[in-house]
Amino acid sequence: MDPMLEWSLLSGPLPWVLLLAGAAGLVLLLAARGRRWWGRSVPVAVGSAVVLTALAVVVVDVVWQPFPDPVPLLVVLAVGLGLVAVGLAVARWRWWSPVAATLVVLAAAQGVNGYYQEFPTVRTALGLSAADVLPFADVAARQRQYVGSRGTPLEGGWRPSADMPDAGVVSQVDIPATVSGFPARPAWVYLPPAYLGSTRAQLPVLVLLSGQPGSPDDWLTSGELAQRADAYAAEHDGLAPVVVLPDHLGDPLANPLCVDSPLGDAFTYLTVDVPAWIRSTLQVTASDWAVGGLSNGGTCSLQLAVNAPDLFPTFVDISGEDAPTLGDRAQTIAQAFGGDEAAYRAVNPLDVLATRQFPDTAGYLVGGLQDSEYLPQARTVFAAAQAAGMDVEFHPLPGEHTWEVWGPGLGDALPWLGTRLGITP
Predict the structure, then answer these.
(1) Residue 60: which residues within 8 A CB-CB, separation 6 or more?
(2) Which residues cross the membrane (predicted)?
(3) Do residue 91 and residue 137 come from a single domain?
(4) Domain total for the chain?
(5) Which residue, 202, 275, 191, is CA-closest to 233?
(6) CA 87, CA 47: separation in Å to the nearest integer?
(7) 8 A C-beta contact, residue 243 and residue 203
(8) Which residues lie closer than 8 Å to 242 by C-beta, 6 or more apart?
């Protein structure tokens, strides 16, 4: 393994090196004398960057609207800075101009990554697979299984086999949309150490969903799911939930709203096709399942908890919205429900929570303390869930609507999940 691939892009010296190199590149691009340069070339480069950036923001936030929240100011400034550098390089073309502009663009990209924390290491930024990825066929063979006593925490009787590894593995899998026809991309599965020895513990399942835009493996790359689950397993004799990461979007920018609609039958895929694959393919508990997710996936986990409570009586909602949305309520009802508000209300979590009680459902909600848009929505969901009889907890964490909250939020939820799903007392 090349240690350079594990260099952090979120802490340590590398982020500072990139930012300082970008500053040096910008100084080099600007360093010229002459009234024509400062009076014409620089203003043209800056003005062009401002116009192009503003146009891009209008297209994304107003015209296209691929996601409900607007582009953050820091991202706008970073894009604008990169365009300024490109404009300056074109205006003052030297052999070193592309190098200097590239340094500025890399620094701007690092600024965006520092905000979202999407790529924690060089490996993830290059799109390379983690070292613990194995073909599913290598770990799918059925093993002698340890099944704990009903009503007794699994940890109390489980003894790991001598050949149990120290860490879990992840594998890419195909979960067919046999019933739903949903255009799902390949899914991923995390199998903890207790699943991998010659004696296999019968473990509970966590179905974990990405945000939007997003992909099923976001939790593995940006959220460091395997590392967090391995750390939990190391404290519990290799025991941790089996984590299945299906695609609930169909495309990185799609938003089928976790319902069955003209946008795709995502609800049937998640409640029929995915469970059927889990039961037929994995050696896990028949019940004791949970669903969780971040942002759009957090909203979906709440929707599944209220609309399929027998399947998912446990949910983890990290920075989710209080309602499925394509931008606003009217637009959502028009595009996904054919203008039928009653159909929307029948599946909208807050409407369902206002009319039903869920005494057997438990939830773990997380919100970023600096997330001015989603934190109030999380508080609204928490209050509504409490009023509907759910056993819910709310945990605000420092940060905005980024991986600074999402990854640690899941890590903090694992002990709660372990108890709720029968691993620990």
Answers:
(1) 66, 71
(2) 14-32, 44-64, 70-91, 98-116
(3) no
(4) 2
(5) 191
(6) 10
(7) no
(8) 189, 190, 191, 192, 195, 203, 204, 205, 206, 282, 284
Say whether both 145 and 249 belong to one domain. Answer: yes
Same domain, 78 and 191: no
What domain range includes position 257? 132-420
Can you give the CATH number for the domain in which 195 is found? 3.40.50.1820
Exposed e or buried b per residue across 169-192, where buried means at least 16 C-beta atoms within 10 angstroms of its C-beta: bbbbbebebeebebbbbebbbbbb
Cα–Cα distance between 401 and 68 in angstroms, integer?
Answer: 13
Residue 327 exposed, middle or buried by CB count within 10 Å (0-12, 13-18, 19+): middle
Tens of pLDDT along the chain (425 residues) come to: 577 888 999 889 999 999 999 999 999 999 887 888 898 999 999 999 999 999 999 988 888 877 767 888 889 999 999 999 999 999 989 999 999 999 999 999 999 998 888 888 898 888 877 667 889 998 888 888 888 877 789 998 999 999 999 999 999 999 999 999 999 999 999 999 999 999 999 999 999 999 999 999 999 999 999 999 999 999 999 999 999 999 999 999 899 999 999 999 999 999 999 999 999 999 999 887 999 999 999 999 999 999 999 999 999 999 999 999 988 899 999 999 999 999 999 999 999 999 999 999 999 999 999 999 999 999 999 999 999 999 999 999 999 999 999 999 999 999 999 999 999 99
Domain assignment of residue 425, yes or no: no
Question: For residues 317 and 301, is the Cβ–Cβ distance under 8 A?
Answer: yes
Same domain, 272 and 358: yes
Entry pTM: 0.90
**1: amino acid identity, one letter:** M
- Rounded distance, CA 294 to CA 317, Å? 6
